[in-house]
Amino acid sequence: MINKYPAVIGIPRAMLYYRYHALWRTFFQELGIEVLVSEPTDRDILERGTALAIDEACLSLKIYLGHAAALADRCDCILVPRVSNFGWHRNMCTRFEAMPDLVRNVFRDRQVQVLSYDVDVLLKKDEEDAFVDMGLRLGRSGREAKRAYKLAKKAEAAHRRAVVQKQEALCRQKGMKILIAAHSYVAEDPCLGRTVTDYLKKAGVVPLRADLTDREAAVKRSRELSPTCKWELNREILGGILLREEDADGLILLSAFPCGPDAMVNEIIARRVKGMPILNLVLDSQSGTAGVETRLESFIDIIRFKEGTL
């Protein structure tokens, strides 16, 4: 709960931000509420988050806490949604279920206000109802909240179409292409996946993203690799690999240490995806760019050797 109607809502630039930023921004904009997004991840944010988290937390969660800390004194409340599942065998990682309580407890001494919404389709709590309820708690009418949500979903769909179309254009480019299988919050974070894509581009390689495909089609195709995988985001990546594999010369399994779902799903991919070289790259807070670049350089050479161009 929030104690007053907020004038400024803070949004950490981490985790589900990369999936839902168009939805969130448009929703609050339509309600006339200012949004403050934290700055892109840097070393200071990473170190602040690491100091706040337990050692066993994944690197993505540590980064998230660093972004929340950066916003704590600059806004009226911080948006921290609870997204549990989208139905049977469509679960999210448990960290997304626990996030609101986690943030409240980590920042309890700073009296950080948390604004949340609850998506749990198995308990009959869908996204639209969650957003309308959040709008009511923000002092808007149900009609205003529903209108804002509808417009936000249109903005989200338009953004998604644009990024998928961009990927399609990249697939048509000439030259070596490497498919990156990673969550968006790993692939797009400046301290994580961005270092990988930047290096590939400098090396003349076209980086493709397995998560940037038609989500519904990807979830359907994912069953060919694993009919029992229960994590929604990993299912999208599994299906995305199958949808893009004909366009790629190699595959990078990119994850943040120590992600449990990725560790299991990446093993499935390594065993069942045939016909292309695979690099399993796990990033942690100690990963230096030199070590990552050396592994990427060797992987590119392996692909060139396989294709007879080295």
Describe this structure in words.
51% of the residues lie in helices and 14% in strands. It is built from 12 helices and 10 strands. The protein has helices spanning 17-30, 43-52, 59-71, 94-106, 127-137, 142-171, 184-187, 193-202, 215-222, 232-244, 260-272, 289-307, and strands at residues 8-11, 34-37, 77-79, 82-85, 114-115, 118-120, 177-181, 206-209, 250-256, 278-283. The mean pLDDT is 95.
What are its keywords?
single chain, about 300 residues, alpha/beta, four-stranded parallel β-sheet
Order of helices and strands: EHEHHEEHEEHHEHHEHHEHEH
Q: What is the terminal separation in angstroms?
A: 60 Å
**Morphology:** globular
Q: How large, in whole angstroms, is the Cα Rg?
A: 20 Å
What is the overall pLDDT average? 95
- Give unreliable regions as ranges: none
Q: What is the assembly state of the chains in this entry?
A: single chain
Report the structural category: alpha/beta
Strand order of the largest sheet: 2-1-3-5
> What is the number of E strands?
10
| Count of runs of 4 or more consecutive helical residues | 12
Quick one: biggest sheet? 4 strands, parallel
Strand content: 5-15%
Helix content: 40-55%
